[in-house]
Fold this sequence. Notes:
Bound molecules: 6-O-phosphono-alpha-D-glucopyranose
Oligomer: single chain
Keywords: Aminotransferase, Cytoplasm, Glutamine amidotransferase, Repeat, Transferase
CATH architecture of the largest domain: 4-Layer Sandwich
Strand content: 15-25%
Subunit structure: Homodimer.
Distance between the termini: 9 Å
Domain SIS: 286-426, 458-599
Helix content: 25-40%
Number of helices: 18
CATH topology of the largest domain: Glutamine Phosphoribosylpyrophosphate, subunit 1, domain 1
GO cellular component, one term: cytosol
Strand order of the largest sheet: 3-2-4-1-10-9-11-15
Shape: globular
Function: Catalyzes the first step in hexosamine metabolism, converting fructose-6P into glucosamine-6P using glutamine as a nitrogen source.
Number of domains: 3
Radius of gyration: 25 Å
Number of strands: 27
Amino acid sequence: MCGIVGATAERRVAGILLEGLRRLEYRGYDSAGMALASEQGLQQIRRVGKVQALADALDETGINGKSGIAHTRWATHGGVTEANAHPHFSNGTLAVVHNGIIENHETLRRKLQGLGYEFLSQTDTEVISHLMHHELEKGVSLLDALKATVKQLEGAYGTVIMDKRYPGELVVARSGSPLVIGLGIGENFIASDQLALLPVTREFMYLEEGDVASVTRDAVTIFDVDGQEVTREVVTSDLQYDAGGKGEYRHYMLKEIHEQPFAVRNTLEGRVNGDKVLVNAFGEEAEAIFKDVKHVQIVACGTSYHAGMVARYWLEQYAGVSCNVEIASEFRYRKSHVFPGSLLVTISQSGETADTLAALRLAKTLGYRSTLTICNVATSSMVRESDLSFLTRAGAEIGVASTKAFTTQLAGLLMLVAALGRYNGVDRDVEARIAHALSTLPNHLEAALKITQEIEALAEEFADKEHSLFLGRGEQYPIAMEGALKLKEISYIHAEAYAAGELKHGPLALIDAEMPVIVVAPNNELLEKLKSNVEEVRARGGIMYVFADRDAEFASDETMRVINLDHVDELVAPIVYTLPLQLLSYYVAIIKGTDVDQPRNLAKSVTVE
Ligand code: G6P
């Protein structure tokens, strides 16, 4: 994780670097730092806490310069201290920012200590600083020193380095952590995400795995993994950074929750037509590939994994293909069986999550028929490395807790269900039903947001609780899991989700009045079964909060609060029922006073294992 920004220009760059860091804070926010080259040499400024703490320190000190590198950190090696914040210096002349993990850092540290280098931090990154310094001592160029350095590194890195003896030059290396070069006129930039650079350029070059490059004010020189000088295509980005900020909303998360009807409309625009879904939305080769697909293997992390779990229910029921879903960090390290005609589907908001990307790369060696990624970032590694891709078009998601990315993923997955069903002999009525349900979905999402006030009131009852249990059945079970994840992420209340039928095999033992039980209860064929589970909780003195279909005939009483939602086709019910659970977590977090958009210990984009 961590965010990186670099700039080399004719003008002073501290402001550009700072704005870049603010935009990258979603990648980590436990400390931030900057190194700037000026007539005084290389100056460093670092602060524990958010980027604002660094901004205040810059204001006080007035440090600035015409080239510099900056970093916002999510701690992996070494605690959250100023000494562990980046940039890391060597000998006062060279500064390094790094994203990723150097796995052989202990061996390198011992070797460098033997050479007389003194380590001032507990980070793995500091080995890069001293290795670079050591290589430079041999009299080579900055870029050659970097080439020699990366040969000694094992693990993942996106790194940018500057040295006072090479004014105006930044050298960069990418292996396992994304980096993009932004091109200006008489100035150039580097960042771990193009979002950081949108105020200064729209022209980008995406470094490939294994690339090393030198970036000066007027030149970019890139060498690939084989040491060949290469050029990388210049792409003009039309990405919109959320220029309006939070708008009328108090937090990005709330804004993103409310954006969902619009975001889903965007996802579907031009892709669902009357009774059909447009298979080309998955790529030009989609039709040819989908015809061969007999099995789907989904791999993802976090919220995206929950989207995959919902899709499994859908795919087996409506597309007639078998489906497995697995957490990427497990999938990548075990020997799995590849069924003939398998499509590997990765789901990711960012397209850069380290474990999911590694799973995709592994799958490509395992004999899958093809790979598809469902992703929100068109330029991401996963999109670029998959045979097929479906862009969710949710727009930038800033809140660490994922909301609109999830519901747009589900909309895309439902399209996939229709498309695979079509080539698998499923009755065309199913595709027509999916297409219809999707077209009316944005309106249902709008309606679901109207119960905000009711949920705000409900949230009061949760704020002093330490534990909670979420229940659902069928495709609402993963929605219960997602509801529990949201609550724990932003309110820090312990939340667990169970398939309601599993209650009696353990969790019933936990039920008492101090353990609120949240039930997701649309009107579907499992409703009566779910009602029995509700009675099991009631009989043990549990207090329940039931999100139910108006037609499901649940009635509020002293042990149960019912929050009614309009009836929707059960196909899209998992998407609709997600919204009240997101709102519930949000309002509980507000009462608890947590940092909603940047909850403790978490980061939006997890680009390390
Ligand atoms: C982090 C985020 C989650 C997200 C997960 C997977 O943990 O905090 O919100 O669901 O990564 O991210 P991806 O970008 O692959 O969907």
